[in-house]
């Protein structure tokens, strides 16, 4: 495809038609028909793409954009690959019964309801910070914390949100997170070569993340209890077998250690799977046929089931990236960013920060809540806006990253985070019949960390908390240079 932007009959705004149709179809499925089916959503996305092609002036370039800049992009393929591998790991953890073990252990420690929800949020924050991957953390944490938390009286919706928020928190501050790397690398210095250092960016945003996490923890404690908890009889009574399943926390620890040592999720997850299989066989948690088996022409075992159950999620992810490819090739995000940069609001330091905040939120919404993609797309524009007012690269990186992690990351019918969480919960229902389907709207409304982060960051912009300027030597200064 050439470098010219995609054009449409009816004007430039027609590039938004596929995204608009997709959001409408998702709204109908969730709110009107009360149906959650990832394959159906993927179908709707492709139908929306096909409708958009009708209005494209060059159908060939249009479909090349869908495939090359969307479905076939490095980010889309990477996410799909991670999902396939981690699906097997998640199924292994779920089938091992470690959730029942965790429920029994937490029950003896007296962690119930809101207390368990807070415990889960903090634990997932630590896991996500260690691994630097929000999606990987979701698939790692849900099989462990979600079923056991419900058994211990946690509100299912708030508990799911706590796990989601913990994953977002880790993605927000982890030095090895792709969003941290993207936000730092896109913010250039004015007066010396190079871009913002990752360590400095992490240190600059830590205060905002911690305050937001404390607010979220308080809300999780208040609203995290289920008024009608499941009877404790639901916890397996075979305590010996239940405690034995705690050995499956070993592969989780191996996964975390390898992730921290190598900073490579593709090395960490297979290490966790291999360790889990060895531990499970050694301690009799499962047998060989539980891992993989062929019987009467049918394939079974958690490796196959975990792989198979991720296919629908991957179809959805790829279809959403197809729409994102259209937005990229049509320069829609570039036009939005340029309009912000030319606005009167961008003419003051505080106004420039608001422009970066608004632009980051809009960019994140346009790419379906995929924060790393939005930061990479909008980061250079934010650098230009902030540089004009001498905002320090650390400050610019904090604004881009933190605001991307707020409201746009949890839009019910658009956020990849929300869809993935919903898909994980659906997959867990097969192992835990007491788990109910969660409404994506309710999930978004109880995502207290992104909401708190938005409030905290808005306060920061209004009062200038943490605002630093770049002096002639590239150092931080409280006063704007003359």
From TrEMBL:
Domain called Na+/H+ antiporter NhaC-like C-terminal: residue spans: 25-187
TM region(s), chain numbering: 15-33, 38-55, 75-94, 115-139, 198-223, 243-260, 272-294, 306-327, 354-378, 398-426, 447-466
Cell cycle among keywords: no
One Gene Ontology term of the molecular function aspect: antiporter activity
Family, as annotated: Belongs to the NhaC Na(+)/H(+) (TC 2.A.35) antiporter family.
Superkingdom in the source lineage: Bacteria
Location in the cell: Cell membrane
Protein name: Na+/H+ antiporter NhaC family protein
One Gene Ontology term, aspect cellular component: plasma membrane
InterPro entries referenced in this protein's UniProt entry, alphabetically: Na/H_Antiport_NhaC-like_C, NhaC_Na-H+_Antiporter
Topological category with respect to the lipid bilayer: Multi-pass membrane protein
Keywords in alphabetical order: Antiport, Cell membrane, Membrane, Transmembrane, Transmembrane helix, Transport
Keyword Disulfide bond: no
Pfam families (alphabetical): Na_H_antiporter (PF03553)
């Amino acid at each position: 495809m050439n470098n010219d932007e995609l054009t449409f009959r009816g004007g430039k705004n027609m590039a938004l038609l596929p995204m608009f149709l997709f959001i409408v179809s998702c709204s109908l499925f969730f709110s009107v028909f009360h149906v959650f089916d990832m394959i159906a959503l993927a179908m709707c996305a492709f139908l929306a793409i096909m409708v958009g092609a009708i209005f494209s002036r060059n159908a060939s370039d249009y479909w090349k954009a869908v495939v090359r800049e969307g479905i076939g992009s490095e980010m889309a393929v990477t996410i799909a690959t991670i999902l396939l591998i981690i699906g097997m790991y998640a199924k292994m953890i779920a089938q091992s019964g470690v959730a029942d073990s965790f429920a029994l252990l937490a029950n003896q420690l007296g962690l119930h309801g809101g207390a368990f929800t807070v415990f889960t949020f903090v634990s997932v924050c630590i896991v996500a910070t260690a691994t630097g991957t929000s999606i990987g953390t979701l698939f790692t944490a849900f099989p462990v914390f979600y079923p056991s938390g419900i058994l211990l009286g946690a509100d299912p919706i708030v508990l799911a949100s706590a796990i989601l928020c913990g994953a977002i928190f880790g993605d927000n501050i982890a030095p090895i997170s792709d969003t941290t790397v993207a936000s730092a690398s896109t913010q250039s210095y004015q007066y010396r070569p190079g871009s913002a250092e990752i360590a400095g960016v992490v240190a600059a945003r830590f205060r905002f993340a911690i305050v937001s996490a404390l607010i979220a923890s308080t809300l999780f404690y208040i609203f995290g209890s289920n008024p009608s908890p499941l009877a404790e009889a639901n916890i397996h009574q075979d305590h010996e077998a239940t405690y034995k399943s705690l050995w499956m926390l070993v592969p989780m620890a191996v996964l975390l250690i390898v992730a921290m040592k190598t900073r490579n999720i593709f090395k960490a997850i297979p290490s966790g799977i291999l360790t889990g299989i060895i531990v499970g066989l050694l301690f009799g948690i499962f047998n060989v046929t539980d891992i993989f088996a062929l019987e009467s022409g049918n394939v079974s075992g958690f490796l196959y089931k975990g792989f198979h159950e991720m296919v629908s999620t991957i179809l959805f992810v790829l279809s959403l990236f197809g729409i994102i490819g259209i937005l990229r090739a049509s320069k829609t995000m570039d036009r939005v960013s340029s309009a912000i940069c030319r606005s009167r609001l961008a003419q003051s330091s505080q106004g420039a920060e608001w422009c970066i905040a608004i632009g980051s939120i809009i960019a994140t919404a346009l790419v379906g809540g995929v924060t790393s993609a939005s930061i990479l797309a909008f980061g250079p524009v934010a650098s230009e806006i902030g540089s004009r007012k001498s905002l320090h690269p650390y400050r610019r990186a904090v604004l881009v990253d933190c605001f991307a992690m707020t409201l746009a990351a949890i839009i019910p019918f658009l956020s990849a985070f929300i869809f993935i969480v919903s898909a994980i919960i659906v997959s867990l229902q097969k192992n835990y019949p007491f788990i109910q389907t969660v409404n994506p709207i309710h999930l978004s409304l109880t995502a207290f960390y992104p909401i708190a982060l938005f409030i905290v960051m808005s306060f920061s912009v209004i009062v200038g908390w943490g605002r630093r300027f770049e002096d002639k030597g590239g150092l931080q200064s409280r006063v704007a240079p003359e």
